[in-house]
Amino acid sequence: MLEVHDLHLYYGQRHILKGVSFSVKEGEILCIMGESGSGKSSILMSIMGLLPKGAVLRGSIRWRGKELIGLSEGEYRKIRGREIGMVFQEPSLYLDPLFRVGSQVEEAYTVHFGKKGARDRAVQALKRAGIQDAERIYRAYPHQLSGGLKQRVCIAMAIVCDPPLLLADEPTTALDLTVQKRILHLLRSLRDEGKSILLVTHDPGVVAECADRVLVIKEGEVLEEGDVFRIFDAPQHPYTRQLISTS
């Protein structure tokens, strides 16, 4: 579904991504694992076309055969949300405190499909994101929600248009262990529905919990790639062994 080949990213003189290549298959969870500052989030932002002004991106990012690098902003808007959804790392930064949850989830839908049926789709998305009392949360403001609920709302926003690919940037950071397990269970459920998920994390425990395949990255370079059992049972690179030993 997604093919990234020889991806290089520059912020001025800084070389952030250095020849990154990988693919994401249909119905799998690919985890990108590495320490903070390794370039993991930059990969997701490159795919979504959300890099800061002045960034230089080279290489190839093909989504279902379509090259994304060089797309106009108008063309990218047709893809974001509808074909590729994204769950950002800190939900409080992406939820507007002035608007109710429901209107924010609806907005992600109406951009692509119009207002008809938007409320029902928003409530349905909240339920799919594991929110049992979806009607109440629909009417709530973000400040009235716990961190775990805010993250689920952000997942609802990412899946309301039913995109086949979901990008998730550290979706369990700063959540307690119980909530973290629920979020990971939700991601596995989405995978079982046929969704593809590209999950960024620094936590080997998260990788072990939900990954099908693993990409290990350090300082913008891919060091190792393999299925989750091979990576944990027989890691080839010393850096991979170091990451796993800290879990």
UniProtKB/TrEMBL annotation:
Record membrane topology: Peripheral membrane protein
Gene3D superfamilies, alphabetized: P-loop containing nucleotide triphosphate hydrolases (3.40.50.300)
Localization, UniProt: Cell inner membrane
Any one GO MF annotation of this record: ATP binding
TM spans (from-to): none
Residue ranges annotated for the ABC transporter domain, each copy included: 2-244
Superkingdom, natural source: Bacteria
Cited PROSITE patterns: ABC_TRANSPORTER_2 (PS50893)
Listed GO CC annotations: plasma membrane
UniProtKB keywords: ATP-binding, Cell membrane, Membrane, Nucleotide-binding, Transport
Family as reported in the entry's similarity comment: Belongs to the ABC transporter superfamily.
PANTHER family, per the entry: DIPEPTIDE TRANSPORT ATP-BINDING PROTEIN DPPD, OLIGOPEPTIDE TRANSPORT ATP-BINDING PROTEIN APPD
Protein name stated in the entry: ABC transporter related protein
Organism this protein belongs to: Thermocrinis albus (strain DSM 14484 / JCM 11386 / HI 11/12)
Lineage: Bacteria, Pseudomonadati, Aquificota, Aquificia, Aquificales
